[in-house]
Amino acid sequence: MLIWQADFYRRPLQDTTGQPLWELLICDPSRNIEYLAFCPQSNANSTWLTQQLQQATQTEKPDVIWVFRPQSLSLIQTAATALGIRVEPNRRTVTLKQWLQQRSQDYPQLAGYTNEPYKPIDLDKPPPVPIPENLWGEVWRFATLPAKDIVDGFSDRPIPVLEMPDFLYPINLGLPSTVRIPGIVINGGRQSMQLARWLAENKPVSLHYIPGSPDGLILEAGLVDRWVLATFEDAEVTEAAKMFTERKQLTKGLHFLLVQPDDSGITYTGFWLLRPE
To answer: How buried is residue 96: exposed, middle or buried, by Cβ count under 10 Å (0-12/13-18/19+)?
Structure first.
């Protein structure tokens, strides 16, 4: 699958008339493909973007374009749809974000630099909100799985919702087969399938323990969404949460989320490999 990464947003630059400049950046994960174009803010629309995408795709067309910035998503989706290209929101645009940071160092040398505060990849995130009450599972717990069992244990099973991208396989992260991958297991009971589908729609990215009163387990999802998956005040659960955080440091951030109807081990409803972007 040919994946491109794209961003279209206002930069700390202006044209000769004082109008803010927007910049389009497109690349593939290896940056063998790079495309860059500026336009004044008055032209920053899907029509201009469609024209640029037509030029960028003269040699080859991607299967999908990943976009990490919410403000860019709808414009790029509209433009790409006109050309039959699928667009997906995705935080994991590592190559593009590195390029954006490099570009931010170039702007002060360009004509029209405004010297305004600019953070190229920072996004405003809303405060976390509780997941809908009708989705709450019956019970949840911290757990671990041997790295060697992750791929073989889940990739070939008939799990309705399964998100295991190759780049998150433990072996592709250079993790030893003996290391234990931390995660969260939710017994959803009758809500199991409904919860798994809701999670799939919201695109889980990572889980984090946040100490407080009470402590919380926060799900990062989508592009900027944050959800309160659980709260707790039990001392044993807090210790397990701290261990979960420590284990993530040993696994380069890799962890998992498993939704199942019960503890029988026979049926799984949803499984995600997760890692902070």
So the answer is: buried
Contact 128, 226 (CB under 8 A): yes
Domain limits, the chain? 3-109, 129-274
165 phi and psi, to 5 degrees? Answer: -65, 145
Beta carbons of 64 and 87 less than 8 angstroms apart? yes
Write the pLDDT tens digit of every residue in 11-63: 999 999 999 999 999 999 999 999 999 999 999 999 999 999 999 999 999 99
Over residues 128-143, the pLDDT tens digits come to 999 988 888 789 999 9
- Considering the segment(s) 3-109 as one domain, its CATH architecture is 2-Layer Sandwich (3.30)
Q: In the chain, count of helices (H) and strands (E)?
A: 6, 14
The amino acid that residue 264 corresponds to is S
d(CA 5, CA 88): 10
